[in-house]
Amino acid sequence: MTRKLGVCYYPEHWPEDQWPRDAARMKDAGLTLVRIGEFAWSRLEPSPGDLRFDWLDRAISVLAEAGLEVVLGTPTATPPRWMLDRHPDMLAVDARGQPRKFGSRRHYCFSHPGYRAEAARIARLLGERYGRDPRIVAWQIDNEYGCHDTTLSYSDAARHGFRDWLAQRYQSTDALNRAWGNVFWSMAYDRFDQIDLPNLTVTEPNPAHALAFRRYASDMVVAFNRAQVAALRPLTDAPLIHNYMGRVTEFDHHAVGADLDIASWDSYPMGFLLDRVEAPADHKAAYLRQGDPDFQAFHHDLYRGVGRDGRWWIMEQQPGPVNWAPWNPAPLPGMVRLWSHEAFAHGAEAVCFFRWRQAPFAQEQMHAGLLRPDDSPAPGLEEAAALAADLPRLPDVSPSRAPVALVFDYPSQWAWEVQPQGADFDYFALCFAMYRGLRKLGLSVDILPADPARLAGHDLILVPGLLHLSADMTAYLATTQAQVLVGPRAGSKTPEMSIALPLGPNLQGLDATVTHVETLPPGAERALQRGGAAERWIEAVETRAEILEETTEGAPVLIRTGRQHYLAAWPDPEAMGRILRDLCSRAGIQTTDMPEGVRQRVHGHHKLVVNYSSEMRVFENDALPPAGLVWKLIP
Amino acid sequence: MTRKLGVCYYPEHWPEDQWPRDAARMKDAGLTLVRIGEFAWSRLEPSPGDLRFDWLDRAISVLAEAGLEVVLGTPTATPPRWMLDRHPDMLAVDARGQPRKFGSRRHYCFSHPGYRAEAARIARLLGERYGRDPRIVAWQIDNEYGCHDTTLSYSDAARHGFRDWLAQRYQSTDALNRAWGNVFWSMAYDRFDQIDLPNLTVTEPNPAHALAFRRYASDMVVAFNRAQVAALRPLTDAPLIHNYMGRVTEFDHHAVGADLDIASWDSYPMGFLLDRVEAPADHKAAYLRQGDPDFQAFHHDLYRGVGRDGRWWIMEQQPGPVNWAPWNPAPLPGMVRLWSHEAFAHGAEAVCFFRWRQAPFAQEQMHAGLLRPDDSPAPGLEEAAALAADLPRLPDVSPSRAPVALVFDYPSQWAWEVQPQGADFDYFALCFAMYRGLRKLGLSVDILPADPARLAGHDLILVPGLLHLSADMTAYLATTQAQVLVGPRAGSKTPEMSIALPLGPNLQGLDATVTHVETLPPGAERALQRGGAAERWIEAVETRAEILEETTEGAPVLIRTGRQHYLAAWPDPEAMGRILRDLCSRAGIQTTDMPEGVRQRVHGHHKLVVNYSSEMRVFENDALPPAGLVWKLIP
Amino acid sequence: MTRKLGVCYYPEHWPEDQWPRDAARMKDAGLTLVRIGEFAWSRLEPSPGDLRFDWLDRAISVLAEAGLEVVLGTPTATPPRWMLDRHPDMLAVDARGQPRKFGSRRHYCFSHPGYRAEAARIARLLGERYGRDPRIVAWQIDNEYGCHDTTLSYSDAARHGFRDWLAQRYQSTDALNRAWGNVFWSMAYDRFDQIDLPNLTVTEPNPAHALAFRRYASDMVVAFNRAQVAALRPLTDAPLIHNYMGRVTEFDHHAVGADLDIASWDSYPMGFLLDRVEAPADHKAAYLRQGDPDFQAFHHDLYRGVGRDGRWWIMEQQPGPVNWAPWNPAPLPGMVRLWSHEAFAHGAEAVCFFRWRQAPFAQEQMHAGLLRPDDSPAPGLEEAAALAADLPRLPDVSPSRAPVALVFDYPSQWAWEVQPQGADFDYFALCFAMYRGLRKLGLSVDILPADPARLAGHDLILVPGLLHLSADMTAYLATTQAQVLVGPRAGSKTPEMSIALPLGPNLQGLDATVTHVETLPPGAERALQRGGAAERWIEAVETRAEILEETTEGAPVLIRTGRQHYLAAWPDPEAMGRILRDLCSRAGIQTTDMPEGVRQRVHGHHKLVVNYSSEMRVFENDALPPAGLVWKLIP
Ligand SMILES: [Zn+2]
Ligand SMILES: [Zn+2]
Ligand SMILES: [Zn+2]
After folding, report:
1. What is the E.C. number (chains A, B, C) (predicted)?
2. In Å, how far is A93's CA from the nearest CA of chain C?
3. Nearest chain C CA: its distance from B570 CA (Å)
4. Chain A residue nearest residue B153, CA to CA
5. Within the 95-134 window of chain A, which residues sit less than 8 Å (CB to CB) from chain C?
6. Burial A221-256 (b: 16+ CB within 10 A, else e)
């Protein structure tokens, strides 16, 4: 597999005579990919129908002549101001009922048919001009779907779209009323056009209503993306990509990814640490200038599962301080290189830095680039160049199956957001806690959708918190040769968000009935016999299966029959580590206790070891300074 | 007095062929009451005028034939979706100006005349059909008025209603301007239709304006309830009941109760602990699975005062985990029984569990019932049955006057919400702190409105924080043979929310002038000479009365002349205990220092002792395990 | 300079027959000024055009006959209710899009031309009647501009006004697009009427857009004030004054002040401490009943720079507990006198107490006056009288130049609010931290706008955080004989809120380039070699200048060439103290380490020493009790 480095570039931001010098410096730094175009609609079409592709032609020529490959973005995340004159109702509406206005980006509602057609139109126009251009090696569609909470919109377009979607799904309001249990609180509907969006209700809406809206909203992202795919596919053979954003879970990435060729994501380790990693303050302080040691890897492994045939990229990689976290310090020297190596070790085909030169104007003027606003090299450039020099020396590790599969299911995220039952129950956090536990044991992981066809070939399969266990899934879990861990909260609901009857988890061959659940505030953890505790969530289980873990009061917490295990609580880190270690032992997977902040990623006979901590760590005879890394052969 | 156990049941949620078995199991468990119908409007009238009472007829028959007595609810808390087509403006509007939409419950504005008429209509139709039916032993009107912050609405209906109400109250805008002091900041009105609701003002509205709106909003609840009472009264002799919700103070329960026969309330001890009891974190941790040891009793004693002739019920009693608190653990074994015994000891005629079978669908699917969703017994059922077995053995204790009366006045709650002066001044919290102090001394308490006619026969009368002292009240307090404690903040205002002149408290025969007040943030408590401290609120008092308590700097905090005492501060628990003990001593009331978490309720020669703590406690030679209780004769 | 004491009085609140007695008691207490009229519009013009000045004539007569001088306010902060019938769209609109309704005060949008004309009309009418009346010694225009967040309004009037303002400033949308960098995210505009206000955007608006709106909003306050000035100037020779409110920074006080004669401010030390001083909890606890030891002085020194020729007053001085802070305790005895002495020591011509008698009605009924609501003296009256007795004995200290100048620039406040980059970066807080550091060293300070013409004659000039360094400014700083400290963050932007190129600070003769910045959460401070640390904000600087301070890792933090210093971080208190001490030493300014809570203000050969702490302090052989003060000659 060839690994590439790239950069995000905005020729429209700079004088044209600066382009050749920029291109040459990119090439000198060892970069070979350059992403352009994704916010440039107002320059491509300054007024409706007035197409100005000439500057883009010239930019592509300059870049290509310097030996760079171009990734071309569709500019649909930033419709020009005139678009609002054509579609005054295209704006998304927030949960309080206010339109979200022009003046930044992503100012459109995914449900709006008029804007969707405009997006397809500009994609088609770009495809017609550049689809067969060999200098364009890939396409990026839109930018960071869902960023800035833009998946959910409470607009008129969404209201009408939701009613149509419900009519398609349920066919009759009687069926919908039954599915949702609308007899409760006299919520029954007679006509689909009586159904409103589930915002601003007096108290919480029916969770089935809320979950249906969440499914609808995700489908609208899929449909929006698909409209551009449909426009581009006939016009190009280059791969189609979207760049997802970290911990954006409001739409189903697997569903969007199914229409695309490569998954990519935008990796901002330090921004994410302060902005969206759930961790204690001392952990955040320890990793302030490095980013969380597992958050990037989680997304690498997730997007490898989203991309077709495991193909994935980093489309944007933080090269220095960003501008959007609560605080924005600079990375420790070496971290830019470390993050990039880690991405490659997880199978990335490309890592692109965001951005080439720091813009002195507009919203991201405080966001570092590889160059400073005054054109001098920023610290990131040196690390990028060092990385480029590293690349040829790296072992050629193609994506390989990891021993552990972790199921991540977007509808489960929505369901538990709708109904957390305890203030700190969060599906992502549960999956991430399990993932972190695996990483502390030195394990490599594949994160996969809840699809039995994807799970084959792993030695250990983890299915935490899955909303609904389908018949296919229970059949597979009962017959796979892998060790299987299901729970907590998995299989507890029907797809319509009712309680499953018989009560969950309904695993084949494992006798277990969750009779009721308890949520536990901080300080009310339930100690386990073997150490550690259950926190946040614990279930009462009736079972005749073997009990592997129980509370000090004798309530079963981990049970098993054969290879199938059911976990009836959210384990704290100590208990999580023990439970995972025992599972691996049964699965014949070797574990390694990693030092604090040290992580590894294994591919066949190679592995990368990285040190996220700010202190020297020794691991397997290697002394790793802060931000240190080593590639090694596995004997 | 006969004590009854009951349960809330929703026949419309279950197949009709399940009803007989449900009824038989209820009976087997020792339940004799069953409440039905209160959310069933969409089944009773699926479209306007299309009445379907047949299923209700059959449900009543099934229940009655099993030997159960029926409490029938009017379904007005959940108007069907078609009601909005008839009355598009019937929704309440929140303080930010947004309509609170259909999709859950309580989606109506109390001020809306059209909806009020619809509510009276359905009540009348139910009364016509079931009013003389002997199987219906009581009526519940609506459900949990004010729950989900629904008392205050900023709708057009409220705006117009408020103007009419003001015109009735003040007769002229000149009178209103004078009463409110509208000369201040040029706020005078020329016409009643210039007066808006007091939301969204630039800075705080005139407190007189705000208090008037709070009085108006409470009156609308009274009027809404009264419309249904007026419809039902001619049609039935069965008692009319409303089920109030814990710590809902936005309307005057005494005023609503005056139109009804029995007060009932919905008791969710664990939900309330985390959701609406103001207490330190360690206290909440200690009582996490038991509920606060005084919160239920406070409401029992409050609603005994709200019900006609002291008649009151628990209409809903938590039988296991609920779904709506920030966290929802399960009760300690025995607590369901303990809570119910305590209610009976405070004079409840009935305790009904909410609900029979946990619903697998809609908003409350995570709320425990006596049965699990799969029809198996939930833990609460066994406790309910044990309780049913206990009942015949309980001493027959009719409601009797407690030695202590505590005045609780809803308008005072509103007034101090409008004008707390310190961020943590809350009238309910003040009354509750005093109530807790009494309970820790083993005392039984009557909670009563500010009506001298209700206060007779008590040995100690406590009047904290009463907005206004009427001439009747001051006369009574000066002449009663009881010991009297008034203050802090009592008698400080006119009924129109101006400062009383002469300055309060204006007690007859007790020389005291509160010249100014101070509010104290946490950490700024003022130590008292005799120990403990004043917290949150302290007054400067000019007095020639006897000084019983003072700060270490010599400021009077408790003064008295004869039997009348004035308290010029919010005492911390230590000071509160001492002050109350001393008062009891002067009143000839015997006190008992209760162990932590142990409480008692005395009736004549019997008393119930309960242990809310999670540890074994010994009290008067009885060893009480967690959730333990004992009924005993008082020698 | 004659020093005066005064009081705020509302004759319209009291029966006319009480006026003479009030006036006599004011005079007896030693007060000589009385401010009236500023909220009385509804009494002056009860309906449109129906002018009732007779009562005001009589009030002025009564006061003047008692020997009092009158300050007359224009009542434009409280338009009567009928004004809304004439101008229904005059209300300000909040950032969420809701009109801010009638019912309190300041219910107008500064952009509304109709209301502005009404304000000018009532000012003109008052001027015509009282402009030449010798009993009126000064005018107050409006009241506390910007209080209650009223500077920023998102109304239609603001939207249209903003577009006109932009058209004036930029002349073409091309120029605007270039200035703002609207090529970024395709935000370009074709017509000025496409530009909306920068609220409710999907993510943050362009900071240039946001800053332009902040400038516009400030200009509207200036224009509103100027309209009244224009009405009054031809009609009176008495000085025109506005009373600013503490820490209101949304409009440019220097720009408003340029149209007026005297600056005044409303000093509520205890309200401010809890409501708007940023300080640790233990600091707030220590000064709970005294107010912050530097907050008042900061404003004294700021408004001395706002007033023409340094003329400034305290128009409102807290005389006891207020009603609007989170908690409202009473001042320590002596503090009312201390605050007033301190104001005089900083050059105040007058100190007026707010208010004469506590009103028993409306919004401020819990706000103390010099009299209680029952007409008895409140504690403040005695202190006011003691103060009046002090005045003749005070040294006659005219305003003199302080050795230190601190630049405070309102646009910098707006810019950094728009783009803090770190959650706790606040320009006011930065300037205040520097000011507090100076005060702890016993220094007197002039706070001045970023105008070289104003900076002459100081020995030390501090320029923290100045958005933009103009050519005039850099030239001045390079040539002044004063020691100069610039930074952090100064000179980092163009006036249009782009990054300055070359990169800042661009000082003449001091080689320094800030290549990037870091923001630091609490706990991530960077230790300095010489002790203390950088917190919140630190810059990477390339420099060949002398390094005076650096981090323990060797990053330069304070550099200098000649007299010019650049500070590349936000120093913690320890580092701030050392840096300022060293600067003073270089500037030949003598410093004094003040004991905790003790402060001094020097004028020529006199100085005032005050003790803000609640404990006895000894300073220079003077024992100062809590709230103690001493005036002394400097040898
Ligand atoms: Zn991005
Ligand atoms: Zn309920
Ligand atoms: Zn004021």
Report:
1. 3.2.1.23
2. 10
3. 14
4. A202
5. 96, 98-107
6. bbbbbbbbbebbeebbebbbbbbbbbbbbbbbbbbb
What's the A316 CA to ligand 1 centre distance in angstroms? 6
- pLDDT tens-digit readout, B360-384: 999 999 999 999 999 999 999 999 9
Average pLDDT in the C425-437 region?
A: 98
- Strands, sheet with C629-633, edge to edge from the N-terminal-most edge strand: C598-603, C606-611, C629-633
Tokens representing C630?
């001493």
CA distance B436 to B445: 10
Gap between the Cα atoms of A518 and A520, Å rounded: 6
Distance CA B285, CA B272 (A): 13
Test B330 with A518 for CB contact under 8 angstroms: yes
Name the DSSP letter for residue A182: T
| Cross-strand bridge partners of residue C394 | none
Burial of B88 by CB count in 10 Å (0-12 exposed, 13-18 middle, 19+ buried)?
exposed
Computed over its alpha carbons, how large is the radius of gyration of chain B? Answer: 25
User: Coil, helix or strand for C264?
Assistant: strand
Residue A423, φ and ψ in degrees, nearest 5: -60, -25
How far apart CA C124 and CA C130 sit, in angstroms, is: 10
* Strands A512-520 and A533-543, bridge-based pairing: antiparallel
**B418-442: per-residue pLDDT in tens?**
999 999 999 999 999 999 999 999 9
Q: Helix crossing, A269-276 with A295-306: angle to 10°?
A: 100
Q: What backbone torsions phi and psi does residue B370 show, to the nearest 5 degrees?
A: -75, -25
**A185 CA: distance to closest CA in chain B (Å):** 5
- Convert the pLDDT of each residue in C502-560 to its tens digit: 999 999 999 999 999 999 999 999 999 999 999 999 999 999 999 999 999 999 999 99
Say which residues have a Cβ less than 8 Å from residue C394's Cβ, sequence separation at least 6: C3, C341, C344, C631
Q: Are B43 and B51 in contact (CB under 8 A)?
A: no
Contact B569, B550 (CB under 8 A): no
Report the catalytic residues of C: 144, 316
**Is A225 labelled a binding residue?**
no
Angle subtended by helix axes B173-180 and B156-170, to nearest 10: 90
The sheet that has A483-486: what strands, in order across it?
A445-448, A404-407, A460-463, A483-486, A564-567, A556-561, A546-550
A533/A306 Cα distance (integer angstroms): 34
CA-based diameter of chain A, in Å?
Answer: 76
**Number of residues written out for chain C:** 635
The reply, when asked if residue A96 is annotated as ligand binding, is no
**R_g of chain A, CA atoms, integer Å:** 25
Most A CBs within 10 A among C163, C166, C184, C418, hence the mutation to make, goes to C184
Residue A635: pLDDT band (50, 70, 90) is confident
Q: Is B479 on the interface with C (CB under 8 A)?
A: no
- Cβ contact A520–B329 (<8 Å): yes
For chain B, how many helices (H) and strands (E)? Answer: 19, 24
**Residue C589, SS3?**
coil
Contact B259, B226 (CB under 8 A): yes
Quick check: C312 and C263 in contact, CB under 8 A?
A: yes
Complex prediction ipTM: 0.96
Q: Which two tokens stand for residue B331?
A: 């009760």
Cα–Cα distance between A177 and A186 in angstroms, integer? 10
Size of interface B-C (CB pairs under 8 A): 166
Q: Measure the CA–CA gap between C151 and C147, rounded to whole angstroms.
A: 8
DSSP secondary structure string for all residues of C45-88: -SSTT----HHHHHHHHHHHHTT-EEEEE--TTS--THHHHH-T
Determine the Cα–Cα distance for residues B476 and B469; give it in Å rounded to an integer: 11
Domains and CATH numbers, chain B: 4-151+208-393 (3.20.20.80), 160-206 (no CATH), 404-587 (3.40.50.880)
